[in-house]
Amino acid sequence: MVALSLADQGPVSAQTSPARTIGHSVELAQLAEELGYTRFWVAEHHGVRNMAFAAPEILIGHIADRTSRLRVGSGGIMLPNHTPLHVAEQFRTLEALHPGRIDLGLGRSTGTGDDPTRDALLRTPDALEKFGEHLRQLLGVGGRVPLDPDDPYRELIASPAGVPLPAVFLLGSSVSSAELAARAGLSYAFLCVNQDPDVAVQALRRYRVLFTPVAEGDRPLAILATRIWVGEDDEHGEALAAPERLAVLDYLSGDPRPLESVEQALARTSRLTDAQLVARDKVDLRGDVVGGIDRVAGRLAELVEASGVDEVMAISNIHNPEDRRESVRRLAVAVGLCPAPVSR
Hints:
CATH class: Alpha Beta
Number of helices: 12
Number of domains: 1
Order of helices and strands: EHEHEEHEHHEHEHEHHHEHEH
Largest sheet: 8 strands, parallel, barrel
Number of strands: 10
Distance between the termini: 24 Å
Protein name: Luciferase family oxidoreductase, group 1
Oligomer: single chain
Radius of gyration: 20 Å
Strand order of the largest sheet: 1-2-3-5-6-7-8-10
GO molecular function, one term: oxidoreductase activity, acting on paired donors, with incorporation or reduction of molecular oxygen
InterPro entries: Bact_Lucif_Oxidored, CmoO-like, Luciferase-like_dom, Luciferase-like_sf
CATH topology: TIM Barrel
CATH superfamily: Luciferase-like domain
Family: To bacterial alkanal monooxygenase alpha and beta chains.
């Protein structure tokens, strides 16, 4: 049985405020723990109308306080927005408060799609290009690797001293990011959204082949993160996916909106605008896992076999919070965490 985890992007619906979305995330994490999920990660997005989470380092501590076993982490911290020292201090603090339960997932984007927000977030204009250097500094000041004698971070101490940096994951969606994670001795999570899953298979296999331990105890750990919707049957699963898929077309066509209800999304999907039709032709849905329990179970088994991953991480943005919880329950059944749907 493959390990199963959740990544929560904080989906905001037309009927749910961003503040209430945070409350729903806590409830979802508690359900995930009850069902036997391994991790619960929260995202960092800025200026995205239908995603509520911009400060994962705060939300991680809040969720960890309200769960007891679940690993809680970032999916991810967008390193170009932050200084390596500050990230190391934040996550050492979280690790001190919740020993052995914190994950630090790192990404190299800014978590936004518009230029003004991106420029406001970047701590330096060249932060995107210097991701590799800043990653090494974070690992160095966090005590995982030595730094060069002339590195300005070499003499710094990330407080609280003596607390280990939590498990570090590199997040990516390319073969090159898999190679970077492998050579750095880091765990790796591949985001297979809007692209051919064969790329994920190639990257994840490449990661395992090239993995080189850097610190004592380093072991390869590969996660496949993808969008998963599990319905009462195949048709219902496709319906649950409709609001998120339409929201992507809205965003790409310049008309971003919060998630609509299934009924509203299905109605609008039948009468897409010319701009949405152009956007649809550019979106690759082959990485999505959608359907009833049996279809989802079969597709996940294929992906796990092909990629050799240790863990599957589901992204399930659904308009109705209860529908999302039910999808999470069915997914637990699909991978064998529980034998039948669990009622609360």
